[in-house]
Amino acid sequence: MAKLTKKRIAWLIIIIIVGFAVGLNMWKGKQRTGPVHIPRTPKEIFEGEVREKGYKQRFVAGDRDASDKIVIVNVQGEITNARWGFSYRRGMVDELINQLKQAEKDEYVKAIILNINSPGGPVIDADILYTKIRELGKKKIIISLLDKMAASGGYYVACAAHKIVAHPLTLTGNIGVIMDFINLQGLLEKKLGIEMGVIKSGRYKDIGSPYRSMDRNEKKMLQDLVDAAHQRFVEKVAAGRNISVVKLAPLADGRIFSGEQARQVGLVDELGTQDEAIELAKKLSGVERAKVVEYYFRPRLWDFLSGKISDYLKVKEVSSIPEPTLEYIWHPSFGR
């Protein structure tokens, strides 16, 4: 009974706080209908949008007093647009694109450094991010800085930049596509004595089902999808690196390169760290003095509350639901 009472009290507190937050936001909305200050300078407009999105700028390196800026955008972890729990914050790809848009609107940003430490992710998510970077590259200088790992989709995204800088020991490459399935038929039938029954509208409706093995036609069908996605990967890398598809083909079998090896075969332009990437960005953008900044998210009341509610209800990440997906990803360890 005491335990039940504590839960009720906890829920009551959460409801009161959420109600207060919603009421406060509604009140602020009404307040905005009155006279407001209209930003006039590009700097005021930009900084106002950054605040509205919950982002702030943090000084990283360079000349703090310089007006020109180089923005570091961190591409960290699996490149996916999955969201967590009840949080209204965008998925990773949307968050990164939002940061790129902020940099695009800021006339003082002369270059962008993509700090990549990623094994890749779903094909579509990686391609969406790649496309935005290529579009932005028509207006701003973009440098990819490969950290510990920029494999598969991580390297795919890196190729959207004008130049690629990698540490000599960066793990990169792994050009290819994977689509994995699990087959539980033997375990269920032979070990547990369970046989699954399926009623379907067509022969291939349950293709990839974990309850049975795939036949030759099904494997061929999925292999064709993987091959098409792989061909797109190769073409994007070839275009970004200015390498012929024929020359790139032997390197695009999923093999892993160190940063040094990647430079030798033309997958990377220079070896170095953040300092070298900054100097290259300044050189290509034609600026002598620049301050290096990065955007970071400033949690607001609802972000805090939504995170706490998700933790309280044990809400999992959406992407944790198993599903067959074409992926530009390197995940050699079981179960990732």
In words, what does this structure look like?
This protein is an alpha/beta fold and 336 residues long. The chain has a domain at 43-175 and 252-317: 2-enoyl-CoA Hydratase, Chain A, domain 1. The protein contains eleven helices and eleven strands. Strands 1, 2, 3, 5, 6, 7, 8, 9 and 10 form a nine-stranded mixed beta sheet that branches. The chain has a two-stranded antiparallel sheet with strand order 4-11. Helix 5 links the parallel strand 5 (141-151) and strand 6. Helix 1 packs antiparallel against helix 11 and helix 3 (92-105) packs parallel to helix 4 (123-136). It is flat, with a radius of gyration of 24 Å. Mean pLDDT is 82; it is low at 27-52 and 308-321. GO terms for molecular function: serine-type peptidase activity. It comes from Candidatus Desantisbacteria bacterium CG1_02_38_46.
User: The biggest beta sheet, please?
Assistant: 9 strands, mixed
The CATH topology of the domain at 43-175 and 252-317 turns out to be: 2-enoyl-CoA Hydratase, Chain A, domain 1
Per CATH, the architecture of the domain at 43-175 and 252-317 is Alpha-Beta Complex
Strand content: 15-25%
- Low-pLDDT runs of 5+ residues are 27-52, 308-321
Q: How many strands in all?
A: 11
Proportion of residues in helical segments: 40-55%
The H/E string reads HHEEHEEHEHEEHHHEHEHEHE
CATH class of the domain at 43-175 and 252-317: Alpha Beta
Radius of gyration: 24 Å
Distance between the termini: 40 Å
- Average of per-residue pLDDT values: 82
CATH superfamily of the domain at 43-175 and 252-317: 2-enoyl-CoA Hydratase, Chain A, domain 1
Number of H/I helices: 11
Structural class: alpha/beta
State the shape: flat
